[in-house]
Amino acid sequence: MSDEATEDLRVLRMPVELDYTYSAGRSASRFLRAIQEGKLLGQRCPVDGKVYFPTRGACPQHGMPIDGEPVELPDTGTLVTYSIVRVPSANIPLELPYVAVQVLLDGADTVMMHVLGECDLETVHMGMRVRAKWKPKEEWSTSVANILYFVPLDEPDAAYDSYKEHI
Ligand SMILES: [Zn+2]
Question: How far apart are CA 156 and CA 163, in angstroms?
Answer without folding.
Answer: 14
